[in-house]
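User: I'm writing a tutorial on reading structure tokens. Could you give me a worked example: one chain, its sequence, then its tokens, then a sentence or two explaining what the tokens reveal?
Assistant: Sure. Here is the example chain.
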Amino acid sequence: MNCGMPRALAHLAGTISMLLTMLLWLSLLDPDKADRIVDNLTGFRNEYRVVLGAGLLAVLLSLVAAIRAARWWYVAVMCSLGTLGFFTYALSR
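And here are its predicted structure tokens:
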């Protein structure tokens, strides 16, 4: 008997993680607009927290999907970790 998370919910978590990852990478195409959106949502001082929080959430959700749904979600975990690493490096300079 499986009393854990249903597979469909785990796939949904993985899909949300990929949407977050995609939004982070799309923010590089138009950084000024992305900067204005984050400033309006959270204020100037919280940009770093929002970006890293989205990256960490993407890693966590894709890891849940990889463990609970299917092994191919481990590719999403690697993409999310790469994104988190890139943005951490870019924001710390």
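What the tokens reveal: Residues 7-92 form one domain. The helical segments are 7-26, 31-42, 47-68, 73-92.
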